[in-house]
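Module 6 notes. Inverse folding takes a fixed backbone as the condition and produces residue identities as the prediction. Think of it as a translation problem where the source language is geometry and the target language is the twenty amino acids. Below is one complete input and output pair. Work through it position by position during the lab.
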């Protein structure tokens, strides 16, 4: 009779140990997932673009009918790093001279179209990616943004 009385208590103790082990395992898995979620990098705010503003300029243009026309244009140059931003600010007179020479050779009829504006921006970007002075690295320019654009 004693063997039959011990068996239910032994089963209850074993069942309790299994329940405790399952509970501990579930708690461990839950807490490890919470830690992984906390450790995941939080999406940071995007960095504001670095811009170098070029003062607006007015240039003479030509067209097919040999009529004089003017272009009033202002730029902002988006740069990749602080070093380029400082370099362009330091060499602003050379930069403006290159821009004036490049822009003054444009055709006013082509510039009034969106494709003409995009082509001019691409030409400006290509021209300004060259070093501004000997022994200088090429500026890390990303894009040209128009701030003013009037063809008259």
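Target side of the pair, the amino acids:
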């Amino acid at each position: 009779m004693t063997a039959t009385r011990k068996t239910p208590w032994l089963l209850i103790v074993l069942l309790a140990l299994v329940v405790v082990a399952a509970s501990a395992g579930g708690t461990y898995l839950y807490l490890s997932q919470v830690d992984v979620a906390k450790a995941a990098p939080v999406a940071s705010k995007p960095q504001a673009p670095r811009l170098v503003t070029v003062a607006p300029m007015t240039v003479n243009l030509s067209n097919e009918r040999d009529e004089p026309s003017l272009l009033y244009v202002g730029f902002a140059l988006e740069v990749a790093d602080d070093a380029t931003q400082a370099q362009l600010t330091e060499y602003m007179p050379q930069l403006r001279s290159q821009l004036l020479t490049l822009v003054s050779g444009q055709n006013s009829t082509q510039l009034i179209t969106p494709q003409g504006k995009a082509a001019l921006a691409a030409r400006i970007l290509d021209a300004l990616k060259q070093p501004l002075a000997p022994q200088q690295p090429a500026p890390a320019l990303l894009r040209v943004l128009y701030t003013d654009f009037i063809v008259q």
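Reference fact for the lab report: The mean pLDDT is 85.
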